C-alpha cells in the first residue's frame, strides 16, 4: 500500500501529532509490519503529522537485515510524509520465552526515550506488549497526559500460554501484565471479533474496545500465466501444490507438513507441500525433511512474485499447532482469501482462524497435528475442482466485503479523532516501572 494511493478518510477536525510505537514496520513484509506501516500511511493521508518509532527489520528471519546491522544509535528515515525513528535492540536467534521478552523490553525502553513533536495521541501496537507500557509513559510525560490507543494484533498472554513458552506461572504473570497495560489505555482496537470477545471476558470496558479488521495489503493480482509461474518456481507438472506462505515459526507447528509430505511419498501421491517464507524453525524443518521428495521450501519473495505464487498454487494451507485458539487471527488469511484459491485449514476448530475460514466459506478445516488428515483434506480438494472453485470465489467475495483498506482507513481515522477529542481518563495508573519490568521470577 503506497501513501500516494490513499485518499483521506474524512477531513480531520484538526491536524494531530500522532506517535506510533511498534516493533515491526516495513521493509518487513509479513506478520504485523504491513499493518503498522499501513496505519501510519492512513493517518498521514488524513493530514496528521505521523511519527513512527520502530525497531530494526528482523522478521521473520530473526536476524537484523543487512542494511541495518551494527546500528548502535537511533536511525531516522522518511516514508513519504511519515517520520520514522528506528532504535537498536537485540534480536534473539531463538525467540522464545525470556529472550523475546528481553528484546521487547530493550525496544520499549529505547522507544520511550525518543523525542519529536509533542504528541496529541500515542498509539502502541501489541505485540510487542511492553511497547504499551512505553506508550503510556510517553503520553503521561512528554505528551502531558495525552490519550493512548492500543492496536491488539495478537493476545500476548494467550500466545505465551498456548505455546507453553514460560510455563504456567510465567504465562499467568504475562496475562496479568497484559490486562494491566490494556486497562490503562484510553481505547483498544482488536483486529478480530475473537480477540475483542477475549478482551471483554478479561474485564476491559465495552466502550473502550472496538474491532477494526486488518485489510488485504497486496494489490490486486493481474492475470497470471500459471504454467509459466509454476515452471519458474520449480514446481513439477502433474503435482498439486499445497502452499503454506508466511512465517515458519513455532506457532505454525509445521512438522505436520513435513510428515504429510512423507506420507505422500510413501503412497506415491501427486501432492507437493511447499513452505514459502522464513522463520526461526526453517533450518530445523529443512533438516527434518531431508530425503522427503514431496517437500519444498522457497525463500521469501517480493510482493509481485508472492502474489503470483499464491495464484499458482492449487491449495493454500493454513497450519497451526493444536493448542492455538485465541492468540490471534493469522494475517495471512487476508492475502489467501484475495488470491482466488481454496484454503485448507489445519487448525483448532475453536480458533480465530477456523472462525474466519468458516465465515468466508474458503475451504475445509481438518484436525491440526494429524498429517494423515492433512493429506486427505488436500486430496479431497484436488479431486473436486468445482468445489475448490466455489471455495475460492466465496473467499474472494468475503475478502472484498471484510478486508477493504478503505473501510479500515475510515475506521482508524475516526478512532484516532475520537481518542484525541475524548481524552478519557485511564482507570489503571501503575507507575512505568511496573509495566516495563519483569522480575526473574516472572519469566522463569
TrEMBL record:
GO molecular function: hexosyltransferase activity
Domain of life the protein comes from: Bacteria
Coiled-coil residues: none
Alphabetic keyword roster: Glycosyltransferase, Transferase
Gene3D superfamilies: Glycogen Phosphorylase B
Entry-linked InterPro entries: Glyco_trans_4-like_N, Glycosyltransferase_grp1
Name of the featured protein: Glycosyltransferase involved in cell wall biosynthesis
Organism: Actinomycetospora succinea
Amino acid at each position: 500500500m503506497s501513501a500516494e494511493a490513499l485518499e483521506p478518510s474524512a477531513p480531520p477536525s484538526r491536524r494531530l501529532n500522532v506517535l506510533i510505537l511498534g516493533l515491526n514496520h516495513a521493509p518487513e513484509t509479513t506478520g504485523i509490519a504491513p499493518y503498522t506501516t499501513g496505519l501510519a500511511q492512513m493517518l498521514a493521508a488524513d493530514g496528521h503529522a505521523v511519527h513512527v518509532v520502530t525497531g530494526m527489520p528482523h522478521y521473520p528471519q530473526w536476524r537484523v537485515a543487512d542494511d541495518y546491522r551494527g546500528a548502535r544509535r537511533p536511525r531516522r528515515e522518511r516514508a513519504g510524509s511519515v517520520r520514522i525513528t528506528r532504535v537498536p535492540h537485540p534480536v534473539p536467534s531463538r525467540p522464545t520465552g525470556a529472550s523475546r521478552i528481553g528484546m521487547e523490553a530493550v525496544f520499549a525502553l529505547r522507544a520511550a526515550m525518543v523525542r519529536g513533536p509533542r504528541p496529541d495521541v500515542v498509539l502502541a501496537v501489541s505485540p510487542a506488549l511492553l511497547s504499551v507500557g512505553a506508550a503510556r509513559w510517553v503520553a503521561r510525560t512528554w505528551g502531558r497526559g495525552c490519550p493512548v490507543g492500543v492496536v491488539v494484533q495478537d493476545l500476548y498472554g494467550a500466545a505465551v500460554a498456548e505455546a507453553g513458552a514460560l510455563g504456567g506461572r510465567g504465562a499467568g504473570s504475562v496475562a496479568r501484565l497484559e490486562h494491566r497495560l490494556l486497562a490503562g489505555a484510553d481505547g483498544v482496537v482488536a483486529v478480530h471479533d475473537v480477540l475483542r470477545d477475549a478482551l471483554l471476558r478479561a474485564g476491559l470496558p465495552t466502550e473502550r474496545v472496538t474491532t477494526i479488521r486488518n485489510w488485504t495489503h497486496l494489490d490486486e493480482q493481474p492475470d497470471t500465466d500459471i504454467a509459466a509461474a509454476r515452471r519458474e518456481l520449480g514446481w513439477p507438472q502433474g503435482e498439486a501444490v499445497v502452499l503454506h506462505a508466511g512465517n515458519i515459526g513455532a506457532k505454525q507447528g509445521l512438522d505436520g507438513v513435513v510428515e504429510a509430505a512423507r506420507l505422500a511419498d510413501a503412497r506415491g501421491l501427486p501432492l507437493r507441500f511447499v513452505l514459502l517464507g522464513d522463520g526461526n524453525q526453517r533450518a530445523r524443518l529443512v533438516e527434518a525433511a531431508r530425503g522427503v521428495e514431496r517437500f519444498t521450501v522457497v525463500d521469501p519473495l517480493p510482493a509481485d512474485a508472492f502474489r503470483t505464487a499464491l495464484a499458482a498454487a492449487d491449495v493454500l494451507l493454513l497450519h497451526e499447532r493444536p493448542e492455538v485458539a485465541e492468540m490471534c487471527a493469522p494475517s495471512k488469511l487476508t492475502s489467501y482469501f484475495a488470491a482466488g484459491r481454496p484454503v485448507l485449514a489445519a487448525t483448532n476448530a475453536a480458533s480465530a482462524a477456523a472462525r474466519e475460514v468458516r465465515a468466508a466459506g474458503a475451504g475445509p478445516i481438518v484436525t491440526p497435528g494429524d498429517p494423515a488428515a492433512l493429506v486427505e483434506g488436500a486430496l479431497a480438494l484436488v479431486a473436486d475442482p468445482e468445489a475448490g472453485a466455489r471455495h475460492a470465489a466465496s473467499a474472494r467475495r468475503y475478502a472484498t466485503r471484510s478486508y477493504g483498506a478503505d473501510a479500515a482507513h475510515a475506521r482508524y481515522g475516526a478512532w484516532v479523532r475520537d481518542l484525541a477529542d475524548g481524552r478519557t481518563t485511564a482507570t489503571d495508573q501503575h507507575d512505568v516501572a511496573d509495566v516495563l519490568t519483569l522480575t526473574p521470577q516472572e519469566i522463569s
